[in-house]
Amino acid sequence: MAPRVLCVVGPTASGKTKMAVALARRLNGEVVSVDSMQIYRGMTIGTAAPTAEEMEGVPHHMIAVADPAEQWSAARFCQAADACIQDILSRGKLPVLAGGTGLYLDALIRGDDFAPGCQGGQTRLRLQQELRELGPREMLRRLEAVDPETAARLHLRDEKRILRALEVYEETGEPMSRRDRRGREKPDRYQAVYIGLSFRDRADLRERIDRRVDEMVRRGLLQEVQALLAGGLPRDATALQAIGYKQFLAVADGTATADQAVEEVKLRSRQYAKRQLTWLRRNPAIHWIYWDKEPDFPAALQNATDFLTAHGLG
């Protein structure tokens, strides 16, 4: 039987960190962050990475493990995070996966076998050049010739996906559709039990997000961006394209005011939360706990504990 893991999921600002820590303490667990931006050092404020105080002595993994100048693919993230999960299991503890990057979480649970190819790789660069020269229609026509199933799902606007499917075929000699089908037929690497957190009223979630952004600014989000730039981080680094960093980079450069940046960060964060919920609601296995306007954490923790006990994790 596949090893068991606990996943604490939900939109941004829903309380995942606090719940994950509390459940890890109760269940002899360690937390693995599944957040595509918390991996970067020097980006604690804008990514809402847990502080030492918030960790409450519970070991956390996959936080501040990468230089912000690096660009991590889903494949690289999953390889590193999976090594953490295996280490936790080998010590007889429960991996508690917490975070909002749904693509990464799903790939970790399934144990996806990522096809070769990467940003900046030789094949990718050549295909990008051919796209510029020949246009998306010709690239999609090429894909139709080697992988009609994938091509049928894509639109001319899906340029990145078209190039990725062509890259997979050129690197492996196998259509992406066949690889995906084989992956779906393979049993999951981990047996996951899910706790989901959100607000009963969407307006309360929006208000919570706005308050979190205000707190990030109060704690020094602009100064964090300035420190990254002072450390030599290029302005076009992937890390600086994240919500919060991109907007306050404009403040640092003098092309936006702090007030403009705050409003933009709030808007982008609310939109991101909506996308997260859309992704998560496709998973019928999630046990949802909904907060009222003022969250009752002890009641929610008991709710989660009762559910996990019923599923053999209590």
Could you walk me through the main structural features you see in this protein, from its secondary elements to its overall organization?
One of its GO terms (biological process) is tRNA modification. ATP binds at residues 10-17. The chain has a six-stranded parallel beta sheet with strand order 3-2-4-1-5-6, sandwiched between helices. The relative contact order is 0.16. The radius of gyration is 21 Å and the shape is globular. The mean pLDDT is 94. Helix 4 crosses helix 5, helix 6 crosses helix 9 (159-172) and helix 11 (202-219) packs across helix 14. The two termini are 19 Å apart. It has 15 helices and six strands. The protein has 314 residues and is α/β, with parallel strands linked by helices.
Short synopsis of the structure:
This protein is an alpha/beta fold.
Q: Strand sequence of the main sheet, in spatial order?
A: 3-2-4-1-5-6
- Biggest β-sheet description: 6 strands, parallel
Shape: globular
Mean pLDDT rating? 94
Fraction of residues in helices? 55-70%
- Number of beta-strand segments: 6
Uncertain segments of ≥5 residues (pLDDT<50)?
none
How many helices?
15
CA radius of gyration is: 21 Å
Family: Belongs to the IPP transferase family.
EC number: 2.5.1.75
Region (Interaction with substrate tRNA): 35-38
Enzyme class: transferase
What topology emerges from the helices and strands here?
Blueprint: E1 4-9, H1 16-27, E2 29-33, H2 44-47, H3 52-55, E3 60-61, H4 74-90, E4 94-98, H5 102-110, H6 122-134, H7 136-146, H8 148-153, H9 159-172, H10 176-185, E5 191-199, H11 202-219, H12 221-230, H13 245-253, H14 258-280, E6 286-291, H15 297-310
Parallel strand pairs: 1-4, 1-5, 2-3, 2-4, 5-6
